[in-house]
Design brief:
This protein has 282 residues and is mostly beta strands. It has two domains: 140 residues; 91 residues, Immunoglobulin-like. It has two helices and 21 strands. The strands form six sheets. It has a four-stranded antiparallel sheet, with no helix packed on it. Strands 5-6-7-8 form a four-stranded antiparallel sheet, with no helix packed on it. Strand 3 and strand 4 form a beta hairpin. The protein is globular, with a radius of gyration of 23 Å.
Length: 282
Amino acid sequence: MKKIITIIFFLIISNLLISQIILENLYLNSFTFPFTQFSRDFGLVNLGGSNYKYYIVDNDSSRISLYNLNHSLYKNITIPVVGNDYHIAYISNSLFDCDSSTTEYLLTKAGATAPYYTRVYDENGSVLLNENNAIVTSCKWNCPNTMTTIVDQPFIYNTPSGTKMLLTYTNGFAKVFSLCGTLAVTSVRDLNNMNQNGLHLFNAYPNPSSNKTRIDYNLPNGVSQGKLLIFDAMGKLVKTYKVSEQFKYITVSTKELPAGTYYYSLQTASNITEGKKMIIIN
């Protein structure tokens, strides 16, 4: 009997030593299955600046709950829409509004019946954008008989001319919107690509600026120099600055440029970053 107990003990210890996957937390009632409607959704989101939060979207309670990485509650946001035929596509602190002190989110309503619309709300319920008949979802499985709609592909992109949002409409039209912030990296695949590349450009501050602004950057290993490119709102190159691996930031005098909206990118011999937005007020 003693020998059996000893064997069981060593088996338990061996399993503990081999296992590298540890349960951190259990979120109850965080997801709905099967996907007959958007009742609850759970995931991980980057609000901007590597500010990662877990989220639970509860359509039944019209609420978004955000949790810190230690699983403590960050904030609850009331959704001013009732029903299960809408989807929260993006959540951010700076993508839709330059004021990073509040959280904004994009809501798209495209269920089995009209009306259809896409809206951007802030955490206080204020509407930042309201586009009727704008569709950013597509049906999956047996959509005609249910309210199952999913965001089939991304419709917000970082570009050298800033961040763009593409919306399509039921009349066949399409619109392109320029957004204030930058789409944050969330997926592991995007993080790996960024780390392997090593080329990274940060937000300018202060922004807006009237005198000068600082822009931090990171060059890949083995790359000693690059260029900071500044474009006007029409995409015309207006300024070029040399940057070096010896420094991690550059101070740009904004007095040399007329007031307006500009975009800047970091370029090396083999790559270029996505564009970021900068506003000059003289």
